[in-house]
Amino acid sequence: MDVFEALLEQNPATTTIKVVDMHTSGEPTRIVVKGYPDLAGDTLLEKRRCAREKHDDIRQRQATLVYIRDILMREPRGHEEMYGAILIAETELTRSGEADIGVLFCHNEGYSTMCGHATIALGRFLVDTRDLDIFPRRNALVYDAEAGTTALRLHAPCGVIHVQVPTDDGHSDASRPVSFLGVPSFTTARNLVVVIPPAVQWPRFRAQQLSEVTVDIAYGGAFYAIVAAAALGFPHGVRDADGTTLAEFDTATAALKKLLSPRKALFAHPTEPDLEFLYGVIVVEKARPGELGLCFFADQQIDRSPTGSGVMARVALAVDQGRLQIGEGRNYESVVSLGSEGNGFRGTAVEKLPQGVIVKVEGRAFYTGASSFIAEEHDTMPNGFIVGLPA
Ligand SMILES: O=C(O)[C@H]1NCC[C@@H]1O
């Protein structure tokens, strides 16, 4: 019996959850491997709805699902910027043979519809795991000896993501990037002018006597507003943003998101109403060196990675703008990945379909640890908390 099991025997826990932690360009993915309860629903989106709806109960009634998500995402076991992946062994597409496994992504506010950085991390983990309780179809994955990669079809809420995982001797090879082909990505608005009412203007914007911001809206498994830093009143871009500037970017992007979110027509999805919402705002450098971006998503989390789904959206936008041709790729960086060789993502426009552009995203992920989390029976703060946010 290890020291942790011995402790548990003395102090019975209400909940025990096992996770594997990874990072992709610095952005964490906490992969829940044991202890997450079954979700009601036949389809992955129904299961996502189940997780979300219970969430609304939680603040009053402590529904189990959110209680568990809070344990993993919030302090003291997680932190405000934590990101989670909950594996769903059976979905309608695993049953039909179109996918190998399903996943729900979670963050500080709820459950997202697409996540590129977590897909890259999951690619490695799902090739490496041998636990068939976690991944029942693991042994059906197909290895391509010539390419040295294993193919994985991940059912995310936005659709099936085709992942290629570099593999060496049956294990993922951390020295080469994981790549994936996303769902069709498309633009819904270009050069949209948003008037910023004086009451919500941020100091730098007001100081320059600006009154409106031009944005593009694009979908890459989730909807993003893409805006140049200069348009928000930051002519020096995002690369040298210090704490004060980041706080002001936070205010600016939150204001923009609030103004845009009610405009439902901008977030129209051809088939799935559950995908119709503005997930994040990506502030990009005007001169676009290395396509640097700063992404605020969910409840203003800052993505440490260059945002895989955001890269899908930005590549689709660049194709529509004529800045990128099919077959061409670009490097994408975040303020964290910038400066370290090979730490960013690469996005390539692979194919143009009637539904949108198929984008290939490449990036690298690494294991950072594995943990068992518990909440003791007598824990006085079992739900966790985030300093500065309501409990
Ligand atoms: O890489 C991505 O697509 C994700 N990273 C955090 C926010 C997005 O979901």
From TrEMBL:
Q: What is its EC number?
A: 4.2.1.77
Task: Tell me a Gene Ontology molecular-function term this record carries.
Answer: trans-L-3-hydroxyproline dehydratase activity
Q: Which SUPFAM superfamilies match?
A: Diaminopimelate epimerase-like
- What is this enzyme's catalytic activity, as reactions? trans-3-hydroxy-L-proline = 1-pyrroline-2-carboxylate + H2O
What InterPro entries does the record point to? Pro_racemase_fam
Family of the protein in this entry: Belongs to the proline racemase family.
Q: What is this protein called?
A: trans-L-3-hydroxyproline dehydratase
Organism expressing this protein natively: Mycena pura
